[in-house]
Amino acid sequence: MVVYSTQSKFYMLRTDQLEPTPIPGTAGAYQAFFSPDGSWLGFEQAGKERKVRLDGSQPVTITDACCADGATWTSRNQIVLGAEGPFQGLSMVSAAGGNAIALTHPDSAHGELDHSWPIAAPDGRSVFFAIWTGSLATARLAVASIPEGTTTRLGVLGIRPLAVLDGYLVYMQADGAVMAVRLNGAMRQTFGQPFPVHDAVPVIPSLNGNSDVYVSSGGAMVSGRGRGLGRLVWFGPRGRAEEAMPGVRAYQSPRIAPDGRRIAVIVQDSTTRDVWIYYPAEATFSRFTNLGTVTSVDWSADGSRLIYAANGDVWWQPVASGLAGGRLFSGGTTVMAVLSPDGRSLLEVSVSSASFAVFRVPLDSSRIARPFAADTNSSPTPAFSPDGRWVALQSSESGRNEVYVRSLADPSVRLQVSPSGGAQPMWSRDGTRLYYRAGTALIAARVALAPTFRLLGRDTVLSTFAAANYFWASDYDVSADGGRILAVEPRTNDYQLVISPNWITEFRRRVAESGGR
């Protein structure tokens, strides 16, 4: 059987049947994993680690959890979790329930930040995991004993272990290659050279190494292919859509230039994501960056530069041709960045395997990042007010996503804007409105910025906002006059699950071709 999520609910599909079955009690659940005998499913939901028997029973709670950094159910009926809440290393809890206890501890002296993506060995006495040191490129694999937690680094670069098959560790590299390396009998060392056992798969840096490939302990594989495509449109009153640019592609995070004459947007092509710029008057659309890993984009207040996050750092580049840009801030784990209107401050969203956090970086002095706001359950999506004094962001600290406004000078000063759920805040150009998504609707909060921030009321701009809604940043923008909304209208989605129940046969063929290494 295969379990997958769609429309925020888990479904179970038996490979000898055509129709999936919804799993009761899994609304809003994520990070599914099976018990060794396949009769139970573990998952996270509403700040808890839970399990459900796959016979129609209701879920039961195991322990607190929040961060979806991997989980594995051992043959000795223990659940090992990736970095969660107070644990930066792996933690462990009985599958019967209870309080989690620390299993491993990151070695900060060697630059270790978190331990994530655990995979249990068949005997239940060892667990393989990834050591996060600040970037996918430097992540490496290790193994820990259960229950002692004694850790051994394997000397292999990798972002996520997948399975232990026939005495080999199957894992992913930062470039998406699916590799295997031979283990010794005690499973504490590798020997020989790693070799590829599957074609490369897309890697999403903002998800800390997670990707669409999973391997069962018996050697079955589930992978994904395809993606959602859309067109860039203007949504007018009553939701009427008017094409903003011809063509259907994988667009994300459109941003209107301050002069209204250019549109920057992230385009995903195959396994790369870069910034492109559209000039409506000339009807030209051209690639602006070539890094292939862009996760956010923003204009400077004067429209002369683009600021974007890529490769874990923040970059800036003049839009005028022939002028060089460069690295604005070396964060190592940055997935989103926005520049203050006066150009003196940068807000960057960093991700560790256990949390998202917003840092403020002064650009006119030391450029040392200092915490601004932290949230362990959602991407904060910060946005500066036009006067630069306030920052809107989303947070799930109350148990669900809500939009808040914080003072830039004193982040402890804050006001909740959305009353019953909100995400992806975006300011109007004159600062009189703060837009946000609330379920399927787009809301505009009427606000005053001086002498202090005040919430004056809320208006429903679109009761049904038929626009794409991705994980990162705000996937829409507002015209200068506030009369139109620029967003991506979904057109096609060719995403498919590819199920290979007997992938172990292909794996063994690759092992044989490699000479066993």
In the predicted model, the low-confidence regions spanning at least 5 consecutive residues are none
Widest sheet, order of strands: 4-5-6-7
Q: Helix- and strand-based class?
A: mainly beta
Number of helices: 1
Using only C-alpha atoms, the radius of gyration works out to 24 Å
- Determine the N-to-C terminus distance: 33 Å
Which percent range describes the beta-strand content? over 45%
Q: For the report, how would you describe the main beta sheet?
A: 4 strands, antiparallel
Describe it for me?
It is built from one helix and 46 strands. With 517 residues, it is an all-beta fold. It has two domains: 67-226 and 496-513, TolB, C-terminal domain (Neuraminidase, 6 Propeller); 228-493, Neuraminidase, CATH 2.120.10.30. The chain is globular. The model has no long low-confidence stretch (mean pLDDT 90).
Main traits of this protein?
Neuraminidase, 4-stranded antiparallel β-sheet, globular
Summarize the structure in short.
The chain is mostly beta strands and 517 residues long. The chain contains one helix and 46 strands.
Layout of helices and strands:
Layout: E1 2-6, E2 9-13, E3 21-22, E4 30-34, E5 40-45, E6 48-53, E7 60-64, E8 71-73, E9 78-81, E10 91-94, E11 101-102, E12 114-120, E13 126-132, E14 140-145, E15 151-157, E16 160-165, E17 168-172, E18 178-183, E19 190-198, E20 213-215, E21 221-225, E22 228-235, E23 241-243, E24 250-256, E25 263-269, E26 272-279, E27 284-287, E28 294-299, E29 305-310, E30 313-318, E31 326-329, E32 334-339, E33 345-351, E34 356-362, E35 370-375, E36 383-384, E37 390-395, E38 402-407, E39 414-416, E40 423-427, E41 433-438, E42 441-448, E43 454-462, E44 476-478, E45 485-493, E46 496-500, H1 503-513
Antiparallel strand pairs: 1-2, 2-3, 4-5, 5-6, 6-7, 8-9, 9-10, 10-11, 12-13, 13-14, 14-15, 16-17, 17-18, 18-19, 20-21, 21-46, 22-23, 22-45, 24-25, 25-26, 26-27, 28-29, 29-30, 30-31, 32-33, 33-34, 34-35, 36-37, 37-38, 38-39, 40-41, 41-42, 42-43, 44-45
